[in-house]
Structures are given as structure tokens and as C-alpha cells.
Amino acid sequence: MIWLPLYIFVTFLLFKKYKLKTGLILLVFFGLLITVSDQTSVHLFKNVFQRLRPCYNPEIQEFMHYLKLPGGHYGFVSSHAANAFAFASLSLLLLKNKLYSILIIIWAFIVSYSRIYLGVHYPGDIIGGALLGILISILIYIIIKKILKKEFN
């Protein structure tokens, strides 16, 4: 819920740049993007690699200072990083605004870094999640361009 104003703002920008019909289609693709990013990070990575999060790793657990334990025991790749970078990447590809692009990438880095700071991910989890999110957003963008050829010519 904390990011709802950002999502509303991006929705506004999408509808401002594209027509109503295209804007609605793009919102559906954003929903698909986050679903694919989130589910891929869990089912194709976390459940396969089963690398313990720092806060659950018995070798370093006593050195960790965290606010709240996460639900899942495994952390590679970070779903937060995957989702944040997927959202940031697709939105900057669609909006093509330099200032927006810089700000949304900074936002994605802050969201991702917070996971390390909270002791629930290693840096490699974040890098893997960011790369996964960017890759998924590029694939979704290619699909969007093929479906909405008129709007992107």
C-alpha cells in the first residue's frame, strides 16, 4: 500500500501518453509483468536453489539484526528486487522520459537495498532479482510492441 501513490502516478502518465484503450491494455500487461516476475522468482529460483536467507542461515544468524523475519526461508532471487526492477524497467521503456527513468531506477535500487539492510537477502539475491526483473520487462515490452504496432511506430 505504501507504493500505491507511485502506481497511481505511473498509471496517470501512461494514460496521458497513450489513448484510453492502449492505457488499459498496458495496465493489464503491468499486472502480467508483476505476476510473472513474482512467480518466477519464487517457483523457478527460490524453490529450486533453496539458498537460506541471511536471517535463517545458522552460521550467521546470531550476527543478524532484523526487524521481522520473512515468511519464506529461501532468498535467491529477491522477489522485491525482481518486481521493483521489472516495474521500473517496463515503465521507463514505455514512458521514455529521462528524469522519470533516473528517478524510477533510484527507487528500484532503494527498494532492493532495503532487503539487504533488513537482513533478508544477500547482495547476490538482489542482483539476481534485478536481472530477472529487467529480463522479464524486456520480454513483456517486446510482446507489447508486437501487439500494439500502431502505437509504437
Can you offer a commentary on this structure?
With 153 residues, the protein is mostly helical. The chain has one domain. It has 5 helices and no strands. Helix 3 (79-95) runs antiparallel to helix 4 (98-117) and helix 3 packs parallel to helix 5. The model has no long low-confidence stretch (mean pLDDT 91).
Based on the model shown, name its key terms:
elongated; 153 residues; 69% helix; mainly alpha; single chain
What is the strand and helix layout of this fold?
Layout: H1 4-17, H2 20-49, H3 79-95, H4 98-117, H5 123-147
Helix pairs in contact: 1-2, 2-3, 2-5, 3-4, 3-5
Gross geometry: elongated
Total beta strand runs:
0
Helix percentage: 55-70%
Uncertain runs with pLDDT below 50, 5 residues or more? none
Class from helix and strand fractions: mainly alpha
| Average pLDDT, all residues | 91
- SSE run: HHHHH
For the largest beta-sheet, the strand count, sense and barrel status come to: none
Report strand %. Answer: under 5%
Number of helices: 5
How far apart are the first and last residues' alpha carbons, in Å?
Answer: 35 Å
Alpha carbon gyration radius: 17 Å
Count of domain modules: 1
